[in-house]
Amino acid sequence: MRSPLRPFLFVAAGFAVGLPLSAAEPVAETPAPSAGRPNVLLFYIDDLRPQTADYGHERMVTPNFTRLAESGVRFENAYCQVPTCGASRASLMTGLYPTRERFPDFLTWAERDAPNAKTLPQRFKEAGYTTISNGKIFHHPKDTADRSWSETPWKPAIGGRHFYNDATAAWMKTNEETRKLPGGKTVKKVPMWEAGEVDPLETSDGLIAAKTMADLDRLAAGGEPFFLACGLAKPHMPFFSPEETYALYPRPKIELAEYRDWPQPKPAGLNGVKEQFAYVPMTLDMKFEVKYNSDDYHRRMQQGYSASVSHADDLLGRVTDKLEQTGLAENTVVVVLGDHGWLLGEHNQWAKNTLLHDALRTALWMSGPGVARGAAVPSYVEFVDLHPTLCELAGVPVPEGEIHGRSFAAVLQDPSAAHRDHAYTRFKAGDSIASADYHYVRYRQPNGERSALLIDRKADPLGKKNHAGDPAYAAVEADLNAKLDAKLSAATGDRAGRSEAAAN
């Protein structure tokens, strides 16, 4: 007999109503920091963009993300440094900006690209913490493993492409479509969607959550400080999620992306994303293939993504419940984040691996001792900033000049405090600056020529018009180019340059 998702996941009419927090709202009293060294629970969720009820998506059924936002702070403007999983994680864990050679793609190894850089868990391990990795934290489990983790990184025997239904198994027997994995191995493609007949704790992510809960029991009994990382794969494609989560999102009620064309004029360096073509868009009953980028395709993609986010929400709730039950919550800093943004039909694109804005802005929450409650943080933060922030909260030293990130610990106590007013991201031949007013991308062409994308975010939040080269925006573009040059200088500079000037 399968166990259903916990009852509180379901609400009237199949939708949760989330009231987005406002940075202007009064902030509840900030709890006093604990006298002891705080633990860290890092909840890393693959491909999670700010697509939860507390971020203003009222139809999302995500009560545990809402609970987290109410107990801590939610970041309105958190940005990854590379919009692809392996490189984003390596950058965050080392606190270093990417360059052309460092952290270029999802196959990145921090050990190879930055062999002398200490990782975030390594600093905690050297400070006497027990450090544990469950699921996907680094892209490669063995990456920096000996020096980062107290125990061998753990992953379940089944992964995110494991399917559960008889209809899926029958289709797989006749399917002849294949894809090439990195390294050249050819494997059969799996369907894009499955409403799995499975207990939530028996999915790949469910097993990771269960291992993390067992670790919390063990760590509570031991009494020593810990850095525990729990990495979930969903909502990464394919969207295999328990059938109860699919039922939360009836397709007729799903709204399509408002703008599905490229920014015009389209810059030469802006290319389409291809990750979605690694999966076959079969209907849930496996009877027919859905036409790519049709309205039906868009609705099914949104349904599958949303279902997977609700599955992650359920598992997050189980783990944080366990944290409270063990008595560890009072002295544990909880960090929940996606590894980058994600396109959900905007510009008719899917996934990440692009410098379009929705692939760069990420989801990030924090709660725990010394962290304000029920507040939204408007200041910009970069993922490289999380490394020194957690170290500061735990009293773990980070020598000057070793990383590019800057601690935003002050923002956790006063969410209105200033930190950054723009954020840097790069991918392949492009470099990007995002601010409240503009999103700017500068591309390098193989022939040495440059192209650019300049979006006026206030006047054009959907990103329809490219103003790069427009004389009316010449001063704006010059300022953004200067900011971008400063970031590139910091990323490629010597040890002293890594501290990054405060103006950047």
UniProtKB/TrEMBL annotation:
> Which one of the record's GO molecular function terms can you name?
metal ion binding
**Keywords of this entry:** Calcium, Hydrolase, Metal-binding, Signal
Which Gene3D superfamilies does this entry report, sorted A to Z? Alkaline Phosphatase, subunit A (3.40.720.10)
Q: InterPro entries from the xrefs?
A: Alkaline_phosphatase_core_sf (IPR017850), IDS (IPR035874), Sulfatase_N (IPR000917)
- What domain of life? Bacteria
Pfam families per the UniProt record, alphabetical: Sulfatase
* Name of the top EC class for this enzyme: hydrolase
The record lists the membrane-crossing segments as none
Cofactor(s) annotated in UniProt = Ca(2+)
Q: What is this protein called?
A: Choline-sulfatase
* UniProt source species: Alienimonas californiensis
Q: Which gene encodes it?
A: betC_4
